Amino acid sequence: MVTANLRLGRLIRPTLSRHLLLALGAAVVLVAISAQIGAYDDYNLTAVAIFAVAAAGLTLLTGLNGQLSLGHGALMAVGAYTASLLLRDHQLPVVVVLLIAVLTTGIIGIVFGYAAARLRGPYLAGATLTLAVALPQLATRYKSIFGGDAGLTVPPSAPPVWLGADFPPERWLAWIALAAAVVTMVLLANLLHSSVGRSFIAVRDNEAAAALAGIDVARTQVLAFVISAACAGLAGALFGYWSGVTAPAGFGLGLSLQLITAIVIGGLGSLAGAIWGSIVLVFVPALTSGMASSLNVPSSVANNLPLAIYGAILVIAMLVAPHGIQGALKRLLALARARWGHSSASEKKGVMDWDDPAPNP
Amino acid sequence: MSRFLVLTLNGLTQGAIYAAMALALVLIWRATKVINFAQGAMAMFTTYLALFAIDHGAPYWLGFVVALLSGLVLGVIVERVIVRPVESAPPLNVVILTLGLLLFFEALAPMLFGGQIRSFPAPFSIVGLRLGNSQVAFSPFDAFTLGSVVAVMILLLVLFQKTNLGLRMRASAFNPEVSRLLGIRVGRMLTLGWALASLVGALAGVLIAPSFLLYPTFMDQVLVYGFTGAVLGGLDSAMGAVIGGLLIGFALGYVGGYLGSDLETVGALVILIVVLMVRPRGLFSLQRLREV
Lengths: 361, 292
Description:
heterodimer, A: 361 residues, mainly alpha, 2 strands, 75% helix, 1% strand, B: 292 residues
């Protein structure tokens, strides 16, 4: 029994194959789910996948590298506008559009990352806040390119023929978004378990010590920013497909703050947490709008209730539980393990410290 | 009148308001080493309270007082209830906390007061004064704006430089441990600092509302400009914040006038990045701020 366990352990140990297996399992389950649900739920599932991509990128930057960005909503706008502009004049396959959006946002990420790498704490937050407020205004300023306040329309991506003529387009978009999310998660999970990921954490925990250990601090920070920006760009392009319209109002400061809410709910620095947080982001509005319509609440209340809840969540989370849902789950799991006596020596203790190395995603 | 002069006068008035916002940020930064990203949202909320009073028949001046007083109270509540418990938490947590407050207030305001864009009354004419035959781009309301910001700054200067209370506040910001040993109620000083900052922010809100129009996110830009001004002046210098805010007012006035008002925020972003790259401690900072 013990040797069997060991063998299994050895088989699963290599990080890549474990992540690929997990991803494969997730993909199968998600496709099965999306086949069972209706168009509206497919739509929501797509939103979860999109937020998960953006939140995963942000959690890498904020949770693992210690840089807080309030500009990720604006970076999503870059991705969305790239996709919209590409699709305005050309008919391109989704994959090409997504890749170009990732590339464009990555390049913008390099430019801003170089500036950001020199900034700390409130300075970085303030600079990225300015980015979040400033960037959408460019869309109104250059109307002929970006379509002004009305924005640009994004043509939907038609399902391929081999799926059948009556394949719902919502499900096709859900598949695209889920595929993007799974690929992003696998790539990021592997990255975090590599030396690059460890250098991210080293820089977050102690820059001086990291530099002494031979890590190029500035370069690491720029890299984290670029990877994170690329994720935001991917999410932004998907967001364009999802909403059908790319307009500045959709990418305000509120979007950036929602992403931060997602990663805080999920516990900073955990990829699984980013998924949890994204689920909350999608289902809180669904819940409140359902409740509001049954209680006959005026629309000004119903529309803003989710944001008020996120704001309250951020405040309460920082006051009470800075580790988020993922942290709470880990704690519960650890408690359960301790109780049933299966805890092994290599397992971490249940209570996680803020400065702990990243929890395994 | 030449366009440049018009823009300069506009920049002066706007700059005075940005200076007030910058001062509010600096007051809190000096006392608690927190950038209160909710400063703008709090000011937005108190401006809505003023409008609520005016809507219900109160004269402008009562609304004005409502804004300032509610700012004071809001500052006390936020510091005591929300910021105090995370005083020793990592800076990232505190920043996230103030962002949560920002989000909360910007969602709460439309829930209570409706989300539509509202105009906000001005107590004086906003039409430019006449000098002989020509009209100057400086209205009685501009004079009032400038005058009230200057008055508040002088009051704060007197408070901090000439009174015992001000000395205690400076001491607590400078070295809380030693101040506590000397019998200063440091906690109370921090609360007072937040209250004053929030009051100055509320003043900026009522002063800018007539020209910006009132909607839940209308202070986001002012916060950004105030932050840029505060960083330009060096975050720990009150005088620097005032000068920084004024400079931002002039700079953005020219950007808006010559390049288009949509580019003002982009202009602020450029200024902020340049300042942070070239002189991260700002123009008037007294000490090294950025930690390694």
